[in-house]
Structure formats: C-alpha cells, structure tokens
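Continuing from the previous page of notes. For each protein in this section, the sequence appears first, followed by its structure tokens. Read the first protein now.
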Amino acid sequence: MKYLIKRILKMDYKRFFKVVGRIHKKTGRNRLFLFIDMIVCGLKYKAGYLDYELFEMYDLNAKQRATILTRGKNDDFVKKYNVRTYRDLFNNKWKFNNKFKKFTKRDFMLLDENNEKEFNEFCKGKEYIIAKPIDGTHGDGIMKIKPDKGTYKKLIKGESRLIEDYIIQDKGMDKLNPSSINTLRIVTLYDQGVSSIVCTYLRVGNHKIVDNFNNGGMVVPINTDTGIIEYNAIDKAGNVFERHPETGTKFIGFKIPQFEEAKKMCMEASKVIPEVGYVGWDVGISNKGPCLIEGNDYPGHDIYNLPIHRTNGIGVYPDFLKRMERKK
C-alpha cells in the first residue's frame, strides 16, 4: 500500500492519459475500459501504465498478466536483495571502475581543472577514447573521440569527464554490428554465499555508438545455456528486426562469442559487494576477453517481457522466481 500510494501521488497524469489515447488509437478499445484496466493492473500486478503499454497487457488474460515482471515486482527484488547505502558504488562510474578494476580491464581517468598533462599522456598512442558522465544513464553523454590538442579544453567545459580506453570489440560481435559495443545484459543474484545467473540479453546498437534500448538500440534474449539467439530483435519503437540493418546478419542462430567466460566473470563480480545481490551487468565482448562496462544495482525490467519474445504470452516472472529461490 505504501508503494501504491507513493506511485499515485507521483504519477504523471498527463502522460498517463496520453498512453490511454495511444492504446485506444492502436486497438480501438474504449478509453474508459482502458483506464479502468490500467488501474486494475497497477493494483493487482504492480504494473505501471508504461508497463501496460510496453508489454501489451491489454491483450493478456489474468494468467498471462501474472507472469509479467512489472516495475513493482522488480522493485520488490531490489528492496529484498540490495542495501540502499551501497548504491553509489554502482551509480558513480568513477567509483565503479575503481571497485571493479579487475573486471573492467581498461585504463581510465577523471578529468579535473589541473590534469591536462596527465590526460595527454593517457591519450598517447590511442586512436580513440571514450568520454562519459560520471552518473549518466541510458547512454546519454557518451562520446567516442579521436583525441587532438584541443580535446582536453573541450571536455573540461562539459559533464563527460570520465575518460576510458576505447574497447576494441571481438570480431565475432563486429559481424553483427560494428558501430557500437554491443553489450550483454547479464543479471545475477548473489544470495547466501551462492551466485547464479538469472537471465541474459543482448543489446545491439543501430548506427550509433551506444546500444541502449532507450537510446535507439535493439534488444533480444540469449539462451542462457547455449549462448545462441532464438528470437528476432526489437527496438523501443516496436520495430522488429530479423537481420541487423547495418550488416544484414541474422539474429536467430547467432552465437555470442566468449559467452561462458562472460557468465563466469559476472558470477565472480557478483561477490565483490555482497550487500548488493541483484545486479544487471553490462558486458562488452572485447578482443581481450569479456569486460564489465557497468553494473546496475537497479536492473531495468523493460527489456525482459517484450511481446515478440514471449511464448503464449507468458512473461519471465515465474522463471525469475524459480532462479532466485534461496539455495539450501
């Protein structure tokens, strides 16, 4: 009830009714029916109105709806397994890189007003570098830069002051898409001294240097046991891709390089901060092996139940519960 009251008080009602309007236009269903049904889904399944639209819950029966991992259910996992006071070690990318240096496998530095010489040394012999905000999300503010004499002065004026080596992607991943580092989202649970994999997904860029689903990228599940893709990809606008538009490579049947090594790395990384047990790791597949891009102490739920990736309308929530059962 506390969660529901908080959500009701903070709800963007203007946006809420825009969602009602979009679904009405798409399906022809009565606006009042949609409004009431959204409220029911919020109360019964902890689904926000964006969940209702994105996961097309208006087309699901009660049994199917119960299997959707909604925002509220995801929040429950976060509250159960993650101690809030440790969140900054994940949200601050500078702190994260230092804490997980063993797994990031790349050099990095933080710009300030007095380290131009250090920056120039950092850039020597490097064709490209990556600059990003310390606390950015969704890939916002990330830049791929070819450094020159004026780069430091340009960067110091902005917010993208965390400087990292540019990751050279494994050639096998380049076959799918070379324009971005295509990251694996590997969700782990560390509980009672046991680390396990909850789910694995691939996020793929589309003519951008970032692959984020909320920034123009595509997403597709990976078979956690085999490392093989079994579905077509989709972007947030609902466009479905049988092949990547840049390379023509088919998604179904594509095998992720270094997949077992990536899973093993994430399970090891999950033990570093045991107070944060439920983590979504973003993993790059580089020419030097899998490496952590970042860790998310609040793993997003929006990529896990997309309609084209469901069989008979069944979502991932039962599988999450099964995989997250406490080990005896």
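Done with the first. The second protein uses the same format. Note its length before scrolling.
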Amino acid sequence: MSADPTTSHPGQRPSATAATRPLLLRLLDAPVHWTGLDAVAAPARDLVRAVEPRWLADLLHGTWLGHPLHPVLAQFVVGSWTSAAAVDALSLAGLVPDDLADGADATAAALAGAGVVTALPTIASGWTDWAELHPDQQRLGLVHAASNYTATAVFVASLVQRWRGRTTSARWLSLAGISTATLGAALGGHLSYRWAAGASHAEHVPHVAPEGWHRVAAYDELVVDEPVQGHVGDVPVVVVRTAAGVSVLADSCSHLAGPLSGGRVTREHGEACLVCPWHGSAFRLVDGSVAAGPAVAPQPLLASRVDVDGGVLARVVPLP
C-alpha cells in the first residue's frame, strides 16, 4: 500500500532555477521551500483531523457540492471587502457628495461586516482542505492563511473605528485590509493553479487514454473486493471485481492522485466503494461518484465487459 505523502516525505517538487523564473513566480513559490513551517503544520494538521467528525469534514470540503467549498465562500468575503474598500476610496478622494456621506459609510460598514462574518466558515473550510494536502502545499497554505487572518483583523479594526466615529482612519484601514486580502488571494490562486490544490487530478483520463477496448485483467484471476491495477494504453486504471460484477475506474485519485489500486473496498450506506490509501476519499464503484471526501470530483468510470476468453476489457467513455 502506498504511503500518505502528507506524512511520509517532505513533498518537495523539482522546479526551474531561479534565473529562469519571473520574479513574481519566485516570490509566490518562496513559502513552498520554508521547511521551518513544518513544525507548525504537523500538529495543526493532526488537530484538524482529530477534532472534525467525518460529516463536518465532508460538508466543509464541499463533497456534497461537487466543488471545493472554500473558494466559493472566499469569493463572497473578498467581494464584500473589495466593495467596502471601493466605497471608502471614493470617500477619501472626496468623490462622495456630502448628502450621501453617511449612507456611504453605512454601506462600507455593512459590506466589511458581511465579509468578516463570512470569513468564519471560509476559514473553517480552508483548514479542512489544508489538512489533506502535501507538505509543500501546506507551507504555502499557511502563508495564504496568515495573510487572510491579517486582513480579517484589519477589517475588524476598521469596523471598531467606525463605531468610535473615526471614519477617516476606518477608511484607511479598509484600504489596508483589502491590500492584504489581495495578497492572500494571490497566494490562494497560486496554490490552486500552480500547485493544484483543489483541482481534479483525474480529469485528464478521458482525454489521454486511447479509444477502443483494451484488456486490463483476467477475470478468473481477480479476487472479490481486491483492487488491482491495469492499463488502458499507458493510462493506469484500477479494476475491482465485486459480487455484482466488475468496475474499472481511473487509478489516480481525483483528490491528489493517490493510487486507488492500493486502496480497499468498503461499504458506504450499502454501496460498494473504493477508498484511497492516501487520504481516505471513497468512490462508489457503480459510477465513480464521491461517497466521502476529501475528494470532491468524481472518479472517471470506464465502460467494462468480460469477453469470451475471460479477459476484462475496458474503454474510455467518450465525453458528452
């Protein structure tokens, strides 16, 4: 069985030399190499995993949504703060008429407050996703979180200043808060798009696997509920024989590419599911859908049949 990479090795990945990478990319990538953060990451990861019941983790992952919940919530937070800062910028620039000044301040306060309130479930979902990442991703995630916590604190300070009637300082704090939040958003986007946290790691299978039927296993050699690896061309798949027949899925887990052929078959609500050996995501063998997170994207299911010679054949299902 393959080891969980979040605990067994540092997860460093090869990268281009500093001289060949743009300055912005080097800055965004820098936290990935800050191994000193591992001393914070390890106990934090273990705490999150220990305190969250499975139903809550699946809720915060967005398993029920079929999409990571954290970026959905983050859009509301950043959008609210951006709108508040825009109103405050107009007020500081003297572009708001005097008869609208009170309304503008009330609007900015409401938007900032809405962002602060929504930040709470956003933070919870972020920690839940973060706890199931590779160590290099977790380092970047910690810096991303620190930026966003700082932004939250600054917007809270801005609200306090408004309540005290100190609108000018509140407006400047609002601009400082959105500047910090923008940095956090940049790091979050880099974590998602450059380091593939939250992206499906199995989406490519229907695009790269060859067409047609391919032999992936011998039916008589398969043991019930024991997954084995096969190949459709060069693409690894996992073959599972159950009491109901044979299922063939992409072998790379959609969460973080864990090898499902090293996993185990279990039952979730009476349905046969294949559990990833790395982070425990469970996929229904009947259709590849997610039964339990942290995965949110379904596992590509291949069409399968047994030929007259007893060979298990599989082919990629064409995309609609």
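What the second structure shows: The chain has two domains: 5-193, 205-315. The CA atoms of residues 116 and 156 lie 7 Å apart. We return to this in next week's lecture.
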